[in-house]
Design goal:
- It is built from eleven helices and no strands.
- It is an all-alpha fold and 234 residues long.
- The radius of gyration is 18 Å and the shape is globular.
Length: 234
């Protein structure tokens, strides 16, 4: 789990730098920085979304995932966790604490590098991909924390749990996560990141955490398609 620990350290270090810098920036400058982040997230999300080989798979994954996410009230749980951490660690602080926690957690957890890097780390101790992700997350956490505050640092917790779990179960996941499955997971995650950009750009407030089950639904649809085709051809 060396790669995950490096990633956590990069987020904490970058977030701390961002908080220190952000406290010295005027409100208009912080707002502009956040809009810049929104534009970058939009580009990253669109690039990821274009990796799909079948847009209907992404559509089905998002629709079914959203319904499952709302049934499980995942978005509410994320925000409750952020508000709890805010009340416990940032009494009297800004309401951006929970927003920073949720937004940064989604950005850092969604994407192929988190999965592939953790699998490589778990299989043979090769954490180079996670090291690259750590650099990217470190710089991103500086920008996020400068605009959204201390909550960004707490996003290191879901990163530790998520990537740590993938690393521990790497042998199992490597045998089932084929390239087509990863492609559709990546595309679905890309659209979630596009949703993040809409929030950062203050265009639309979306319940993005509710879409997280779509990342599981997408590969399931890929697996089921050949089975359904075979059944229909009988």
């Amino acid at each position: 789990m060396v790669g995950t620990m490096v990633n956590v350290g990069a987020i904490l270090g970058g977030g701390l730098v961002g908080v220190l810098i952000g406290a010295r920036l005027p409100d208009k400058m912080r707002s502009t920085v956040m809009h810049g982040l929104g534009l970058v997230c939009l580009l990253i999300g669109l690039q990821m979304a274009m990796k799909t080989n079948n847009i209907l798979i992404v559509l089905g994954a998002l629709m079914l995932g959203a319904m499952l996410g709302e049934a499980l009230r995942i978005d509410d749980a994320f925000h409750r966790a952020g508000l709890f951490l805010q009340s416990a660690l940032a009494r009297g602080g800004s309401g951006l604490f929970a927003e920073g926690f949720v937004t940064a957690s989604l950005v850092f957890c969604v994407g192929p590098m988190a999965i592939l890097g953790s699998i490589q780390d778990g299989l043979n101790g090769d954490y180079r991909l996670l090291a690259i992700k750590s650099m990217l997350d470190g710089f991103a956490s500086i920008a996020f924390a400068a605009s959204l505050g201390w909550g960004v640092l707490l996003s290191a917790v879901p990163i530790l749990l998520y990537q740590g779990a993938v690393t521990l179960f790497a042998h199992f996941l490597a045998s089932i996560l084929t390239d087509p499955l990863i492609a559709e997971m990546t595309a679905t995650g890309g659209l979630i990141i596009v949703g993040i950009s809409l929030r950062l750009l203050e265009i639309k407030e979306l319940r993005l955490a509710s879409f997280l089950p779509a990342l599981v639904v997408a590969p399931l649809i890929v697996v089921l398609i050949p089975w359904v085709k075979g059944w229909l051809e009988r």
